[in-house]
Design a protein that fits this description.
Layout: H1 4-12, H2 15-22, H3 47-59, E1 76-77, E2 83-89, E3 105-112, E4 115-120, E5 123-124, E6 134-135, E7 138-144, E8 150-155, E9 174-184, E10 187-196, E11 201-209, E12 217-223, E13 233-238, E14 244-249, E15 258-262, E16 274-277, E17 282-284, E18 297-305, E19 308-315, E20 320-326, E21 339-343, E22 359-364, E23 373-380, E24 388-396, H4 398-401, H5 440-459, H6 463-466, H7 472-478
Antiparallel strand pairs: 1-2, 2-24, 3-4, 4-7, 5-6, 7-8, 9-10, 10-11, 11-12, 13-14, 14-15, 15-16, 16-17, 18-19, 19-20, 20-21, 22-23, 23-24
Length: 480
């Protein structure tokens, strides 16, 4: 777990500029002391506030009341025809009981039996951003209740407290942000981006878990130099032909969207991933954007639902969370109609899908259908930090917009049950994950011993040749 010293370092280093980059949609009124719709939890002497004060006292961190919370709203009709309803924030007052009060992202993959893994980015033990200890990535187990609300019940990791899914040594603004997670035949795979300063990706990494997300083992690194960074941020989904299809872009929110594919046995070797050229319709080494019209791609989520490819994107060009649906993946997606489900607006105005200030993310909830799509969208007030949360949206009417007969669509298939093999995915040679059975002190000792054991060999290596091949955790601890 990251300590409060990292939080203080974050405040005093380049993160100030990174915050401005993190949401380049500059919402009008973002610096105002605003109020949002819904109840402000922790504003009085309730159980949540009492727990937060106790936690702060025990851990020596500064206490703040819970951030502004958004609850369920009435559905609204969006320009373009979609009907969108804010269902409410993913985290509520319960979250302090497992040690996480503020978070974003929330990319999901099914675990089977009606449950799914939710993977979050920078998360905080306190009630809002910078409050308490800093962890990333984190995970929770979720499900949809009978009324269609996402409910989260426990940490994805072992134990009853949320802990980082990947262990690495904290330093200044060094963080690991997840891009996507996928369940292939019961094995979970997660891709993440190593950032030294937000949007400054050094390389990316893929892990797998055969322990239902409790422990993770590295399966491959990819340098930021791959495709000049256009392969850093991805979303993936398995198609009916067995290929894993990948939409990708940079993590700078200024580039187009590209497409690649691979077989699962090649997941750790990007050189074997085929690139798509929509101009020729061919797969190979040449690539061109599948979306380059009015596009500055942010976070993306690709899912295959009832025979259709559904793509959700935060588009920094339009300041909106957008949905596109196509019956084929390998095509020019500029031709696919765009449906807006959340639009940037002022913090001074009531928050709703028509005015969702500083939106980003946009991840499809497992169990969604074409005519009943749930999407988790993030929001961060970078001016006051009084709002930092992932929120569930429900979207209706996409079947009519895209001319799809919902009544004729097949039922959703049963997803594979995620493996939970005892002892699976223990500590890997790259130190991508330490056994969650260890306490934090033991983890740090094992990490340090492992690093020291490799220093002698590393010193004998040719520095320019080996540097980019070293895990980012080791490079940052050696300051190389």
């Amino acid at each position: 777990m990251h300590t409060s010293s990292r939080r203080r370092a974050l405040r005093s280093t380049t993160v100030a500029s990174a915050l401005a980059l993190s949401l380049t949609v500059a919402a009008p009124g973002a610096g105002a002391d605003e109020d949002t719709n819904g109840e402000v939890f922790g504003s009085g002497p309730d159980a949540s506030a009492e727990f937060s004060e106790q936690y702060a006292a025990e851990h020596g961190v500064e206490f703040h009341y819970q951030q502004n919370q958004v609850g369920t709203q009435d559905a609204v009709k969006m320009p373009g025809g979609a009907t969108v309803r804010v269902m409410g924030d993913i985290l509520g007052t319960w979250s302090q009981g497992v040690g996480m009060g503020a978070t974003d992202l929330g990319v999901m993959a099914p675990l089977g039996e009606g449950k799914f893994a939710m993977i979050f980015g920078d998360s905080f033990t306190g009630g809002t951003v910078f409050d308490g200890d800093w962890m990333s990535p984190t995970g929770l187990v979720g499900h949809l209740d009978e009324d269609g609300f996402v409910q989260v019940s426990s940490p994805l990791n072992d134990g009853n407290r949320v802990r980082p899914l990947i262990s690495y040594a904290p330093e200044k603004d060094f963080t690991l942000l997840p891009s996507d997670i996928i369940n292939i035949d019961g094995t979970l795979y997660m891709q993440g981006m190593w950032n030294r300063g937000l949007h400054n990706v050094s390389n990316t990494q893929i892990w797998k878990s055969d322990s239902r997300g409790k422990r993770w083992t590295s399966v491959g690194y990819t340098s930021h130099n791959y495709l000049n960074g256009l392969g850093d941020m991805i979303s993936w989904e398995q198609g009916p032909d067995g290929y894993i299809y990948v939409v990708m872009s940079s993590f700078e929110r200024k580039d187009n969207v590209y497409l690649s594919r691979f077989k699962i046995e090649d997941i750790g070797d990007r050189d074997k991933w085929e690139l798509f050229n929509p101009g020729s319709g061919e797969w190979g080494d040449y690539y061109a954007p599948i979306i380059d019209h009015r596009m500055q791609a942010g976070e993306m989520n690709l899912r295959y639902i009832q025979g259709y490819w559904v793509l959700v994107i935060f588009n920094n060009e339009t300041g909106a969370i957008e949905v596109r649906i196509s019956d084929e993946i390998a095509r020019n997606w500029n031709d696919v109609p765009v449906t807006t489900i959340a639009k940037n607006g002022s913090w001074a105005n009531p928050q709703s899908p028509r005015n969702w200030s500083q939106p980003y993310g946009g991840y499809i909830v497992p169990g969604s259908t074409i005519d009943n799509l749930d999407v988790v969208i993030s929001q961060w007030n970078t001016g006051t930090h009084k709002r930092y949360m992932a929120t569930q949206f429900n979207v209706r009417g996409l079947d009519e917009i895209y001319g799809i007969d919902a009544a004729s669509l097949p039922a959703l298939p049963e997803p594979p049950v995620a493996n939970d093999i005892p002892g699976a995915d223990g500590r890997s040679a790259s130190n991508s994950s330490l056994s969650s059975g260890m306490d934090e002190t033991t983890e740090k000792i094992v990490t340090i011993v492992g690093v020291l054991g490799g220093i002698a060999a590393i010193a004998a290596m040719s520095f320019p040749f080996w540097r980019d091949m070293l895990p980012p955790q080791l490079r940052q601890m050696l300051h190389i």
